[in-house]
Amino acid sequence: NWNRPKKEVDFLMNEAKKHYESMIDSVTNLGYNVKIIGETIEDEEVNNKIIKLNNLGNKNESFTVVFAFNYGSKKELVNATKLICQNVVDKKISIENIDEALIDNNLYTNGLPPIDFMIRTSGEYRISNFMLWQIAYAELYFPKTYWPDFNRKELYKAIENYQLRNRRFGKIGEEDD
Question: Nearest Cα to 34, choosing from 15, 19, 45?
């Protein structure tokens, strides 16, 4: 959120620079994938680290960590729409080819599985322009804990809560099976 006070934005940029470097080491050593989604920013150092992280992974198909940085779902949907429209104009596809799969393939999260569970820290009961398309059937969890304090214990509580849920993916109940 670029509308935050400059001091807070500067702090977040410095934290990103610091943590991305340690993430590069972790990705290299542990072999998991990292995908960072969102728009590029003016800070070239952060952008270069994001590109480096995105290019490091792809070794471990079973574990991917996704970070949203300078991400807004509305912007993502607008960009996907522009890409699809350009393909129609260029006669690469016809309007009849536009479906959910095509939209999925043009989002930043292309190639990632659907979101099953979204944790929104801080006690806010809103999704704040976050993955509006991708969370269509996700289970949502709203702990009062702020992100910096969201630790292993909080994660376990969230997972326990998720395990109690009956996922229906838009269906009403068993009679819809």
Answer: 19
Backbone angles phi, psi at 27, to 5 degrees: -60, -45
Contacts 24+ apart (CB under 8 A), 99-108: 103/133, 104/133, 106/79, 106/80, 107/76, 107/77, 107/80, 107/133, 107/134, 108/37, 108/38, 108/71, 108/76
Q: Report pLDDT digits (tens) over 111-154.
A: 888 888 999 998 899 998 999 999 999 999 999 999 878 899 99
- Which residues of the chain are modeled with pLDDT < 70? 1, 27-31, 57-63, 173-177
Is-contact 47 41, C-beta < 8 A?
yes
Note the pLDDT of residue 113.
83
